[in-house]
Amino acid sequence: METVVEKGTIEFDNIINSKIDKYFESIGLSDTSGLLVKVAVLAVIVLLISYLVNKLTKYYIIKAIERVIRKTKSKYDDFFVDRQVFQRLSHLAPAFVLYIFNGIVFNDFPQVGEVVHKAILIYLVIVFVWSLTAFFSAVMDIYDSHDYAQERPIKGYVQVAQIIGYFIGILLIVSIVFNVELMALFTGLGAIAAVLLLIFKDTILGLVASVQLSAYKMVRAGDWVSMPSHNADGTVVDISLNTVKIQNWDKTITTIPTYEMVSHPFMNWKGMEDSGGRRIKRAVNIDMRSVKFCSKDLLERAKKMHYLKDYVEKKEVELANYNKEMGIDESVTVNGRRMTNIGLFRKYLEAYLHHHPKIHKDMTFLVRHLQPTEKGLPIEFYVFSNDQAWANYESIQADIMDHILAILPEFDLKVYQFPTSGSLPMEN
């Protein structure tokens, strides 16, 4: 088929050129100078036709197509207009005019015509690849317009397709310039495969990593991630074939190679955001020298506390019955069962957090003792707030700590802290 087309084109060029030659001979331009004038005139005419075709295509045909697309009910085709797919394709029209008339213009100068022919083919390849990349971008925009695109982004795959398009375009240009068959170039690539693997190492690793990130839903745009190895802590703003961009909380941007997200550990806070709660895990160190059994005065104060009144009254009855049944002499402090100020405080803290409007009641709720150390006895509360916004979350746990520190003296307890010059007795 290509042979038939080529023969038809040559015959058409010969017919047109014979008529043009007869015309120039009739006006006395048949020598070398006449040939140059002929080429110049024909070149100007062809360039003018190409210019008119370009204007007609770009400002009338393409504009009409875009207006029709904008009026359709579907919004998918609008993405092709936004990405200027049709505008880029319009550059093919003047190139085709030059391609068709090239043989006629340079019929008497075949070497020059061959160079121009190659230049036009290269231009056509560039415009086609340029339009193809815009087409892939439009397809990605259509995909991203759906909700499930957040779970499985395809930006990495689109970039791979674009790279393949660029690669094939480069091979086509090389085959045009050096008159080499395209299949021969592909065959020769086997010999330089190792070099290509080295050159595109990051791209290949990024492709594999992006597939893993997408398939296993490890991270997506909008997730809050922490990656201490790269000093990254913030929101993922973009995931591409080669890089993942994270906007840190200080508004700086950290760029991490995509394959690093697979080969290095990182924390994704998406699970916390989806759970409806955010963990509060704080502890206050109690000076163990202030731990003691509850005095009558402390128990009377506790009965006036809204959160402890019922507990203290019920506990007093329970302990009194137990000690009576066991025949315990309560005049000795160590005998029997008694309430302690730290146990009373722990129950108060449980009740206080249980009634706190910002604490999630259906998630882990724990108030406990940790291992005593030289820094005192840690009392830890492990709960979840029902407000996940960072500023609100910090305010909630700060309010709780404020209350705990302020309420401790009511239980005759003291917070442990390292001795300072202000807390040491003054020397005489």
From TrEMBL:
Statement: the UniProt record of this protein carries the keyword Transmembrane: yes
Matching InterPro entries: LSM_dom_sf, MS_channel_C, MscS_beta-dom_sf, MscS_channel_2nd, YbdG
Topological category with respect to the lipid bilayer: Multi-pass membrane protein
SUPFAM superfamilies, per database record: Sm-like ribonucleoproteins (SSF50182)
Keywords of the record: Membrane, Transmembrane, Transmembrane helix
Identification of the protein by name: Mechanosensitive ion channel family protein
Transmembrane feature ranges: 35-53, 89-107, 119-139, 160-178, 184-208
This protein's record includes keyword Transmembrane helix: yes
Domain of life (superkingdom): Bacteria
Chain ranges of the Mechanosensitive ion channel MscS domain: 202-270
Pfam family, one: MS_channel_3rd
Protein location: Endomembrane system
Family the entry assigns: Belongs to the MscS (TC 1.A.23) family.
Organism of provenance: Carboxylicivirga linearis
UniProt domain Mechanosensitive ion channel MscS C-terminal: residue ranges: 342-413
